[in-house]
């Protein structure tokens, strides 16, 4: 019995000898917004044919689904398409948020593909946004399939 009394007394002392002279309160806040799903087709960079003997890099633009302005180490680009996003109604392009650049890296070699995204308001009044892309790729980029993604937001 004495053992339990001592145990209880020690526990009470341990619990009550920690007196706080100060305390604080943390407020927790959240803002919840309802969103509408934006449907976008894929940005297809295509099959990029590179001649590494032609220079250090190459570039091209995907405009209205076609590869244009092919330069540098890029010999040919096949099967490109630009993304088209469909919104619920007419949009103000200044309220669309997309990243301005993306980067794909072939990790073993450290070569990069830089992608600049350019929103175009060809049909904004119909709730459609087209995104052009300018691509620059290192001539030594390893052959393979590469994938990345990005989000599109409409902030009203």
Can you offer a commentary on this structure?
With 156 residues, this protein is mostly beta strands. 10% of the residues lie in helices and 40% in strands. It has one helix and eleven strands. The protein has one helix spanning 2-16; strands spanning 39-40, 47-50, 57-63, 66-72, 74-78, 84-86, 96-97, 101-106, 111-123, 128-138, 153-154. The strands form three sheets. Strands 1, 3, 4, 6, 8, 9 and 10 form a seven-stranded antiparallel sheet that branches. A two-stranded antiparallel ribbon has the order 2-5. A two-stranded antiparallel sheet has the order 7-11. A hairpin with a 2-residue loop joins strand 3 (57-63) and strand 4. It is flat, with a radius of gyration of 28 Å. 15% of the residues are buried. The mean pLDDT is 84.
List the helices and strands and how they pair.
Elements: H1 2-16, E1 39-40, E2 47-50, E3 57-63, E4 66-72, E5 74-78, E6 84-86, E7 96-97, E8 101-106, E9 111-123, E10 128-138, E11 153-154
Antiparallel strand pairs: 1-6, 2-5, 3-4, 3-10, 6-10, 7-11, 8-9, 9-10
Could you write a compact summary of the structure shown?
The chain is mainly beta and 156 residues long. The chain has one helix at residues 2-16, and strands at 39-40, 47-50, 57-63, 66-72, 74-78, 84-86, 96-97, 101-106, 111-123, 128-138, 153-154.
Keyphrases for this structure?
156 residues; seven-stranded antiparallel beta sheet; two-stranded antiparallel sheet; 1 helix; 11 strands; 10% helix; 40% strand
Name the helicity range: under 10%
Shape: flat
How confident overall, as mean pLDDT? 84
Q: How far from one another are the termini?
A: 71 Å
Which structural class fits the helix and strand makeup? mainly beta
Number of strands: 11
Please state the CA-atom Rg, rounded to the nearest Å: 28 Å
What are the low-pLDDT stretches, counting only 5+ consecutive residues below 50? none
